[in-house]
Write a structure and sequence with these properties.
183 residues; Rna Polymerase Sigma Factor, Chain: A; 2 domains; 8 helices; 73% helix; 0% strand
């Protein structure tokens, strides 16, 4: 971990609002991106991002420096998304409802692109939570297996297994559509 990140998080732990604003500025796009990819088109995405940053503010003193600051932040985001999905399941909420494009509003190419993205998002949403987080971190956020293992607090072998199962599950879900030429 670099000293700049360590100094930044230590300043936040001491209540430095300027340091916190720097962290928010540095990570806001990535945090929102992970939330959006994990939950799909979720009307609560901005609120969830704010909640993540509140957690970071409140728990900055708990950062041990054993991993990169970015890994610690992504772990908070992943855990927050997992908790949100579990609560949503209990209340039978569906984060996908708004992700389906309206054919009348889109040109044909845009409609096809959105439909394909919707199909892929639906396939991702159908994965078990840990597989979903692992594949998102690997494929969309370019995290290494080591970083994923730190974020999910699992062994490297478990990360490999999660990613293997996620890819297999996605292949099975998308195969019928691929055969029909839908994607």
């Amino acid at each position: 971990m670099n000293t700049r990140d360590y100094d930044l998080i230590q300043s936040i732990a001491q209540g430095d609002e300027d340091a916190f604003n720097e962290l928010v500025s540095r990570y806001k796009d990535k945090v929102f991106s992970i939330i959006y990819r994990y939950l799909g088109c979720c009307p609560d995405a901005e609120d969830l991002a704010q909640e993540v940053f509140i957690k970071i503010w409140r728990h900055a003193g708990g950062f041990k420096g054993k991993s990169a600051l970015s890994t610690w932040v992504y772990k908070i985001v992943a855990n927050h998304c997992l908790n949100y999905r579990m609560k949503a399941k209990r209340h039978r909420l569906s984060p996908l409802d708004e992700g389906i494009p309206d054919h009348k509003e889109c040109h044909e190419e845009e409609y096809i692109r959105k439909k394909t993205a919707g199909i892929l998002l639906e396939a991702l949403n159908s994965l078990p939570p840990r597989q979903r987080v692992a594949i998102i971190l690997s494929r969309f956020d370019d995290c290494s297996y080591k970083e994923i293992s730190e974020i999910l607090d699992v062994s490297l072998a478990t990360v490999e297994s999660l990613l293997f199962r996620a890819r297999e599950n996605l292949r099975k879900k998308l195969a019928p559509m691929r055969n029909k030429g839908e994607i």
